[in-house]
Write a structure and sequence with these properties.
By secondary structure, the protein is mainly alpha-helical. The chain contains 11 helices and no strands.
Length: 195
C-alpha cells in the first residue's frame, strides 16, 4: 500500500494539540489524544514531534504568532521609522496615539474567543515548569519589544509589554472584563515617562 503524501499533516497535528489543550489543559495532552484529534496514525505525531515538549514548543510558537501578527499588521504601530517614531511617541499626541492603539489591540483581542486567550496564556505560563518552552515564551516578549521600539525607546517598549501581560493575566485570573479606560491610562503613563 502506497504511503499517502500529506504536506499539511504537521500543521494539523499542531492544531489538534491546541484543541486538546483548549479542551483538557496541558495535562490532557498526549501523542495519543493529539493523534485522535488530528485523525492521523499515532506514529505521525511521534514522527513529527519526538516528545510532548517539542509539540508544546510548536503550539506555543503558533500562539505567539497570533498577537505578534496583530502588532505587526497595525498601521499605527508601523508608522514611521525608529527615530521618527520615538520622537512622536514621547510627545503628548504620540503617547496618546500609542496608548490608544495598544488599548484598541488588547480590546480587540479580548473581544474574541476567551478560550483562545486562556489557551495562549496556559502555554505561555507552562514555561515555568517546562524549560524547553522558556526560549519560545521569551521570543514573544522580544519580538513585541522590537515592534514597539519603532514607536518608543526599548526600555519603554519592554515596560509596555510587561503592563499588557499583567493586565491580561489579571483579567484572565480574576475572571473580570477588560477595562479599556484604565489600560489606556496606564499605557499612556508609561509612554509619557519614557522619552
Amino acid at each position: 500500500m502506497a504511503r499517502r503524501y500529506d504536506p499539511h499533516r504537521r500543521t494539523r497535528i499542531i492544531d489538534a494539540a491546541l484543541s486538546v489543550i483548549a479542551a483538557d489543559g496541558i495535562a490532557g495532552l498526549s501523542h495519543r489524544t493529539v493523534a485522535a484529534e488530528a485523525d492521523v496514525p499515532l506514529g505521525s505525531t511521534t514522527y513529527h514531534f519526538g516528545s510532548l515538549d517539542e509539540l508544546l514548543v510548536a503550539a506555543l510558537r503558533r500562539c505567539n504568532e497570533n498577537f505578534v501578527r496583530t502588532l505587526r499588521e497595525s498601521e499605527a504601530l508601523a508608522a514611521g521609522g525608529e527615530a521618527e517614531g520615538a520622537a512622536r511617541a514621547t510627545g503628548p499626541a504620540g503617547s496618546a496615539g500609542l496608548a490608544d492603539e495598544l488599548t484598541r489591540l488588547l480590546g480587540q483581542w479580548f473581544a474574541g474567543e476567551r478560550g483562545a486567550i486562556e489557551l495562549e496564556y496556559e502555554l505561555y505560563l507552562a514555561a515555568l515548569r517546562r524549560p524547553a518552552l522558556r526560549p519560545v515564551a521569551a521570543e514573544w516578549t522580544e519580538e513585541a519589544v522590537e515592534l514597539l521600539s519603532r514607536r518608543t525607546d526599548p526600555g519603554t517598549a519592554r515596560a509596555l509589554v510587561a503592563l499588557m501581560d499583567g493586565v491580561c493575566l489579571q483579567v484572565l485570573l480574576a475572571g473580570g472584563t477588560f477595562d479599556a479606560a484604565y489600560t489606556r491610562e496606564m499605557l499612556a503613563r508609561i509612554v509619557a515617562g519614557g522619552g
